[in-house]
Amino acid sequence: MADDPGADDERSGADGDAEPHGGEDPAAWWDEVYERDDSPPWDIGRPQPAFADLAESGAVEGRVLDAGSGTGTHALWAAERGHPVVGADVSEAAVERARAAADDRGLDAAFVVADALDLPADLGPFDTVLDSGLFHAFESDQRDAYADGLAAVVRPGGRVFVLGFGEGAPEDWGPNPFAPADVRAAFGEGWTVRDISAVEFETREASVPGLLGVVERDAHS
């Protein structure tokens, strides 16, 4: 992660915004990102190809949570496919943009302001969680807390699809690239890691090496 947010802006064509620095209010930081006139580099305006492939295979099922939903791209896409869907993001500015997009498109999708590290238990239950670029914004200890929070809102047998920067992706663009071991470490007891595969993660100007983890909530958790 670069120390100078301005330096990140110079690289913003390829996912250049770093996550909040220590001491910053995450919600305020993300609000600033989403209040800019230009779209964030990860906001490509269409589903990530890895998620589109999952949907075509029938892997996206039931009630869907778009975790870290931003402007609502994946939540609205899931709604178009007929899924009951909730998008959750810590940024009120992002949620307002997502709600406006849902209204403009006449789609039935709910969006809530919520911290992914402290999700309300009554937000669930969900059959599917889509995480595009959220897991890779967290540090290792935060990833553990994130997985614990998801455990409270995912049905037994429900699946979490974790997509983000993988090994070989730039390490100075903001996100923290992760490896298969990071997914297994975060989603431990109460979860089963079904698959981890190398994919492409698209940004507005470049595709970078990505990783897709498929994690299932244990039936007797």
How does this structure look, described?
- It is a single chain.
- It contains 7 helices and 7 strands.
- Mean pLDDT is 88; it is low at 1-18.
- The radius of gyration is 16 Å and the shape is globular.
- The chain starts with a helix and ends with a strand.
- 29% of the residues lie in helices and 25% in strands.
- Helix 6 links the parallel strand 4 (126-132) and strand 5 (154-165).
- Strands 3-2-1-4-5-7-6 form a 7-stranded mixed beta sheet, sandwiched between helices.
- It has helices at 5-10, 26-34, 49-56, 73-80, 92-105, 140-151, 180-186; strands spanning 64-67, 85-89, 110-113, 126-132, 154-165, 191-202, 207-217.
- The longest helix is centred in the middle third of the chain and has 14 residues, at 92-105.
- It is α/β, with parallel strands linked by helices and 221 residues long.
What class do helices, strands and sheet pairing give? alpha/beta
β-strand percent reads 15-25%
- Major sheet: size, sense and barrel closure? 7 strands, mixed
What overall form do the CA principal axes indicate?
globular
C-alpha termini separation: 36 Å
Q: Using DSSP, what is the number of strands?
A: 7
The helix/strand order is: HHHEHEHEEHEHEE
Q: From the alpha carbons, calculate the radius of gyration and give it in angstroms.
A: 16 Å
Mean pLDDT across all amino acids: 88
What is the helix tally? 7
Helix content: 25-40%
Strand order in the sheet with the most strands: 3-2-1-4-5-7-6
Low-pLDDT parts are 1-18
